[in-house]
Amino acid sequence: MIDDSTRRFTDRVSDYVKYRPTYPREVTTFAHLECGIAPGATVADIGAGTGISAKLFLDAGHPVVAVEPNAAMREAADAYLADYAGYRSVAGSAENTTLETASIDLVTAAQAFHWFEKAGARREFARILKPRGKIVLFWNSRLVKGSAFLEGYEALLREFSTDYANVAETYPDDDAMADWFGDGFEQKTVFPNAQLLDYDGLRGRLASSSYAPKPGDARHEPMLAALRSLFDATQQDGCVNFAYETRVYAGKPMAARASVSAEAQRPNS
């Protein structure tokens, strides 16, 4: 994982836990029915953060090891998921999970995938997966059009956020994901997702974003004033609809597995 990305959320963990959306349960149904993942299969959730995506698979009956390099986020996940017998966490990254070779049935990665070093992650996923293991990658993509609120929120981010323009377009598109999987790419799907947020929830959701100006920044108070105005102008029954598409990609790391096999057969020099 890119070094800066492992630290970006350290001082935003509380807001992340409270205000980030979960993922549709249809993601696990998709993994079972479309990808052939057996109930009870061992899952490694990479870049697990505060445990939102790990909980999705724990609730579906899977043992999950959460791989997360940020200590503050990993500790939040440990507290959040402490009651699940099938949960454990490790301090690792997408490129160095610390997990044993061929020990995992399903590799998942949710909102963190765009921070990974893609070639290194592909090699590592291939290493830790069992021979018939699968990869399911998914994330919530915030919709930027379709309502006055969504369009106003996007404009607010572009006006006030510190480095939003640098990270706003970093989620891979369909072509990029097909290229990442290579011959192992199998299928994709999209599920609708949304949060209904009152003003405090909306403010917390904004604060959870790594690019939002923090208290003390000259842009912080003007940003909140603009957020309040946007909320007041677009709320219905005291809430706004913070809409997403949950994009899901699945397959096998065929190219990476072939590369790993070739390196294993290479004589020592």
Automatic annotation (TrEMBL):
<dbReference type="Pfam" id="PF08241">
    <property type="entry name" value="Methyltransf_11"/>
</dbReference>
<dbReference type="GO" id="GO:0008757">
    <property type="term" value="F:S-adenosylmethionine-dependent methyltransferase activity"/>
</dbReference>
<dbReference type="InterPro" id="IPR029063">
    <property type="entry name" value="SAM-dependent_MTases_sf"/>
</dbReference>
<protein>
    <submittedName>
        <fullName>Class I SAM-dependent methyltransferase</fullName>
    </submittedName>
</protein>
<dbReference type="InterPro" id="IPR051052">
    <property type="entry name" value="Diverse_substrate_MTase"/>
</dbReference>
<feature type="domain" description="Methyltransferase type 11">
    <location>
        <begin position="45"/>
        <end position="137"/>
    </location>
</feature>
<dbReference type="GO" id="GO:0032259">
    <property type="term" value="P:methylation"/>
</dbReference>
<dbReference type="InterPro" id="IPR013216">
    <property type="entry name" value="Methyltransf_11"/>
</dbReference>
<keyword id="KW-0489">Methyltransferase</keyword>
<comment type="similarity">
    <text>Belongs to the methyltransferase superfamily.</text>
</comment>
<keyword id="KW-0808">Transferase</keyword>
